[in-house]
Amino acid sequence: MIAITGATGQLGALAVEALLKTVPAHDIVAIVRNPAKAEALTQQGVVVRQGDYNDEAALTAALAGVDKLLLVSSSEVGQRTAQHRNVINAARAAGVKFIAYTSLLHADNSPLGLHVEHVETEKLLAESGIPFALLRNGWYSENYLASAPAALAHGVFIGAAGEGKIASATRADYAAAAARVVSEDGHAGKVYELAGDNAWTLSELAAELSKQSGKAVVYQNLSEADFAAALKGVGLPEAFANLLADSDTGASKGGLFDDSHTLSQLIGRPTTPLAESVKGIL
Asked: What is the rounded average pLDDT of the residues 61-71?
């Protein structure tokens, strides 16, 4: 049996969808905070169990009989290490034999502040005694495309990434890789640096938005502090705004670039091009 944490989340739901292509539904355990939101999975025959990253006992019960686990990193930045420790402890107590963890691209030397909790989780996995693989995910194209409507409305895409190359892929691309690694044998001990085939800059993203929409959009590069202030100005919580600004600065230092093509090799096809993702958002 294969379990997925956060199975109704943005990445987790896509991972379940990808698994269903090769794994019988009754062999998939969707661990969710609120089972009522997973009714569609239940109707497909997926085993839905309640589990919260903050509740080790509930997680241990949810992982009963599970052989392999896809640990999708928590979305609660600042609480991730403790939450992931709960999942790893529960997996050990339940006898889980393999964990695939969604970490961060080049986590061990990333300039992004986000890397800290991922490195701490990787260390917990190494100390757990459970065989594991690291899925070091790069940026999701959706992270930047969420800002496309505002950019089109105002004619300006703001950021602090300079001319840093961003090798993004879609969540569905990363989910397909995760599904393969957690459902096949032979991945224990592997570290996969996962990113899109074709990198781009925020200037190139603005140009692509202009090209496809017919509306002029330019990229305006800001300092990290000014970008964070702008994000707070449109209502983002301070911690999240600071995180996004830090990530952009990290991108300017090469933190979101990788040209190994490991992701496309894992999924057996090219990653989704930025132009296709822009078309989808428009």
From this structure: 98
